[in-house]
Amino acid sequence: MRSDGSAWSARRWLRSAGFAWAGVRHAYGTQANFRIECWAALGALGLCVWLRAPLAPVALACALVLSLELLNTALEAVVDLASPQRHPLAKIAKDAAAGAVLLGSAGAVLVGLSVLLPPLLARLGTG
């Protein structure tokens, strides 16, 4: 579809958002790790609310992990399309994308621990 030339078009935005949501639904329906990360994010955000801890750093860390997982899913699909047979470069691309998710997840765990652990320990009476 060609652009209508306007910088802002609600119709174009809604159409694009629909495509994006289809990608999220596909990942949730086909990628076990994405489902796990979605539920972990929901749990972490719920803890923020319960503990009255700062929401922004945890929400940003969750969004980063979920975004990286979506990019990993997209890259895997493109690599599979371009190289249906096993190829060393295809493996490198897939492994590097998975590594990005791993590093993002490790960072998110550190953010979660630094933001949530002190108020959790205080609430439990051990901090």
Provide a descriptive summary of the structure in words.
With 127 residues, this protein is mainly alpha-helical. The protein has one domain (10-124): Helix Hairpins (Orthogonal Bundle). The chain contains four helices and no strands. The longest helix has 37 residues, at 88-124. The radius of gyration is 19 Å and the shape is flat.
Which structural category fits the helices and strands?
Answer: mainly alpha
Shape: flat
What CATH calls the topology is Helix Hairpins
- Total helical segments: 4
Measured as a percent range, the helix fraction is over 70%
First-last Cα distance: 57 Å
* β-sheet strand percentage: under 5%
State the domain count. 1
- Write the H/E string, N to C: HHHH
Task: Quickly describe the structure.
The chain has 127 residues and is an all-alpha fold. The chain contains 4 helices and no strands. The chain has one domain (10-124): Helix Hairpins (Orthogonal Bundle).
Spell out the blueprint of helices and strands.
Layout: H1 10-30, H2 32-51, H3 55-82, H4 88-124
Helix pairs in contact: 1-2, 2-3, 2-4, 3-4
